[in-house]
Structures are given as C-alpha cells and as structure tokens.
Specification:
The complex is a heterodimer of chains A (71) and B (389). Chain A is mostly helical and 71 residues long. Chain A is built from 3 helices and no strands. The radius of gyration of chain B is 23 Å and the shape is globular. Classes of the chains: A mainly alpha (71), B alpha/beta (389).
Chain lengths: 71, 389
C-alpha cells in the first residue's frame, strides 16, 4: 500500500471531505458499461490487447459492410 | 461484431441545433423544441453544436431544460452532444456536459476562463466584486468540468495502460510511475497547442503533491483528526508551515501582501484532492475496471474471497491508490483549461477526456466498448486459454 493510501486509510470517515453534489444513483448507461466490462472480462480475462485486436477487426468489418451498401 | 446502442448514437431526428451565440434569444428558440422532444419519447436527445459561446447563464439554462424530467416521469432523457464545426467557451462546456460527447473530425474546441459580459450599470461595489468573481468562477467551472468529464479521462487511462511497459522500455526507466507513463503517452498524441495546457496541468499536479506531502508530515507530529474541521485545521497548519518554508529567503514576502491568497488557493486545492479520494464515482470505476489494473497475483487473491461486498472492498482498496493520482492530475488539467486560451482539435479533446468519440477515427470509446459483442463462434477456445493464463 502506498504512503498516500495508508494516510487516507488512517483517517476516520468523519474527517474525509465528500462532494455534496455527487450522485449515488447508477444510471442506465453506467449499468451498460459495467455489464460490458463483465462481458469483456469473462471473454478476455485481464488481457486487453486481445480485446482491442478483436474490436479493431469488428470495426473494420462493419466499415467494409457499410461501404458495400448502395449510396 | 458491433451492435448499435441508441444511448451512444447521435440521432438527427431527435435533435436540437445550438448555433450562433448562446444567449436569451437562443433559449427562446430552443425551449419549445426541447419540451416537444421530452414529451415525444424517452430516448436520448442529440445536441448539435456550432457556436463560439456566449453567456454561461444561458448555456446553463439550456442544459437545465435538457436535463429536466417531463410531467409524470422522473428520469430525464440522455443528452448526446456533438461539436460539428466550432464549440468555444460556453459551447465547449455544453459539449462536455453531454452524457456522451462526440466531435466531428475537423471541429475546433476552445476552452478558456470565465469572462464577464456586463449587463448592469457599474458601481464601486460591483467593480470590486468583478475582480474576484472570475477567479472563483474559474475554480468552480474547473471542478464542474472535472465532474462532467472524469469518466472519459479514466477510460483513456485504462486503455493507455497497455502501452506503459513499452514506454518504460523505450525510455530505459523501469521505475517510471503509472502517471508518468500516462503523461508521456498522451503528451505524444497531442497537438502543440494542447501540449501547452498539458504542461500547465503537470505543474499544478506537482503542487498537489507538495501540499499532500506537507500535510502528511504534519500528521506524524500530532494526534490524528477526528472530524472534518480537525482535518481542515491540520491542513491550514501544514500549509502555513509550507508557505513559511518556501518563502524564507524572500524578505519582501508576507501573508498580507499576497501570501494569504496563495494559502486560500492551496487550501481549496487540497480539499479538492481529498474529496476526489473519497468519491463514490471513483469507487465505481475501481469496481468496473479494477480487474485490469491490479497485478494478476493480487487479483487471484481477491477473486478467492466469497463474500461479494468484501471482495469489492478489497478490489477498491487496491485500485483506488492507482486511479487517484490520475483523477487528481485530471482536476489539475481542468483548472489549466480555464487559464488562457486553449484551442484544441477534436483529437486533442478526445485524448484530454473532453469528448468520448471523434467521428470517423478509430479511437477506443465507451460506445465501442459497449457495442462490441465478441463472436462466440470464433476464437472461444483461445480466449479461454488466455483467461487461464
């Protein structure tokens, strides 16, 4: 644990400033991102390189498909 | 494959157009359009922006209207903003306020500090207030900008991490910190103009570190704080010590001649830093993306914990110290964007976390992250072995 982390951990909760404007409601979009993160983790584990390579291929394939459509 | 998700896609059939100066006339033009869109469906509203800016109060009125729920419903429509040609000043703020923000590839985005456009007759009291209000306005808008855009910046960081080892190797500096690696990687992707604001952010972040260091040293000498006000008192003691030490060699320096302003500024900087540390949103990011950040052996230990709440807490405890410097650096960046004139390209805005996506560029975005669905028929065994490894 870093020195900063130890310092923050040592502070009682009542002494840590919090943002009054912070929303505790999880939005639909946040849920979708969280689900997507779960999917990616289940499929690729901790290796994001393989994920990025598959994404690149999927984007390319979609673009090629769009270019074949009549304008 | 990519499966389109309307929460991340612009839709010109459910859109408003913010063009020209943002002022009361624009509000009058847009209000009926926004109300009609709210009542017709709950799907996202696209906000296309081509504006040099205008009155911040008018921009906030438009934003508040867009975010209002309609009668009988409690959740507002999502807002997807898009800079088409030019988004300057208040229009740049509007752009970054979108739940999802997009820039067209040749759009220009201009950030600068608060400017006061006078409508009232000038009085002595009012002119005195004007000398201090732009400064406090800048700070407030910097923090608002940070809140609006921190998710984007964190997302950049998570995907930049795959390049950290290469940077350490290229620079022959194995001990380079995560933040230093990130600063190097993003700096290399920015235009010359954007690099100026990046440099200002680095300076400001250095100040945060000095302040925190000074405060932590102070804690070692006294009993720990019990309440927020105890903590604030400790901060003030530490900051006064730091100021005295830093200015010892300057015989002209006093608190009354400028030192007190610096003390107040530093006090708020430190509060910002500490508020970020306890942020619920930071916790959410730790939970969603933390598994890609902790070392494999730590993750294996965390995943052995059966109790979910305990597992999440340990993950957050491990990830928070890694993400926190990134968030603090980002707060410093938002302050830097409020100083001087910062003219950015669409790609700069993407790398600085001000927009989610640049149309037509193959840059990783939350949209792609969500819309990408791995093909189960192809490569499933290979993926399973990756996970096992």
């Amino acid at each position: 644990m870093t020195t900063t982390a130890k310092f923050f951990k040592s502070l009682p909760k009542a002494a840590v400033p919090t943002s009054a404007e912070e929303s505790l409601v999880v939005s639909q979009e946040e849920r979708e991102i969280s689900d997507a993160a779960e999917r990616v983790y289940e499929r690729y584990g901790t290796d994001l390189t393989a994920f990025l390579e598959d994404v690149r291929r999927a984007v390319l394939s979609r673009r090629e498909a769009e270019e074949c459509l009549p304008h | 494959m990519i499966v389109p998700n309307e929460n991340f896609r612009l839709d010109p059939t459910r859109a408003i157009y913010v063009s020209g100066v943002i002022n009361d006339e624009l509000i009058t033009r847009l209000t009926p359009e926004i109300i009609r869109l709210h009542h017709s469906a709950k799907t996202p509203i696209s906000v296309y922006i081509d504006s040099p800016g205008g009155l911040i109060s008018s921009m906030e009125t438009i934003l508040n209207l867009l975010r209002s729920p309609s009668q009988g419903t409690y959740s507002p429509c999502k807002i997807i903003t898009a800079a088409t040609v030019n988004a300057g000043s208040a229009a740049a703020d509007l752009l970054s306020s979108g739940d999802y923000a997009v820039a067209y590839p040749n759009a220009t985005i201009l950030y600068h500090g608060v400017r006061t456009f006078e409508r009232n007759p000038l009085t002595l009291e009012y002119t005195s207030m004007l000398t201090t209000s732009p400064k406090s306005g800048n700070d407030r808008y910097a923090m608002e900008l940070a809140r609006k855009t921190e998710d984007r910046f964190t997302f950049r960081y998570i995907f930049a991490r795959s390049e950290f080892d290469k940077i350490r190797k290229d620079k022959n500096s194995p001990a380079l910190s995560e933040l230093d690696c990130f600063i190097e990687i993003i700096g290399a992707k920015l235009s010359r103009e954007a690099n100026k604001v990046w440099a200002k952010a680095k300076d400001r972040y250095g100040r945060y570190e000095d302040l925190l260091d000074s405060v932590m040293k102070q804690y070692g000498k006294r009993p720990g704080p019990r309440t927020l006000v105890d903590l604030e008192a400790e901060h003030l003691r530490a900051l006064i010590t730091l100021e005295l030490k830093s200015n010892r060699k300057d015989p002209t320096w006093t608190f009354s001649e400028g030192g007190i302003e610096r003390l107040v500024e530093d006090f708020y900087l430190l509060t910002e830093y500490m508020t970020n540390y306890g942020s619920e949103r930071l916790k959410r990011w730790c939970t969603t993306f933390g598994r890609w950040m902790v070392p494999a052996e730590t993750l294996a230990e965390i995943e052995l914990i059966v109790d979910e709440a305990e597992r999440v807490e340990l993950l957050v405890e491990n990830v928070r110290p890694m993400l926190q410097p990134i968030w603090s650096f980002f707060v410093a960046l938002c302050h830097a964007l409020q100083e001087g004139e910062n003219r950015l390209t669409a790609t700069d805005a993407y790398w600085l976390g001000l927009v989610d996506e640049v149309i037509g560029k193959d840059l990783m975005s939350l949209r792609i992250f969500e819309e990408f669905k791995p093909d189960p028929a192809v490569g499933q065994p290979a993926a399973a072995s990756d996970t096992d490894a």
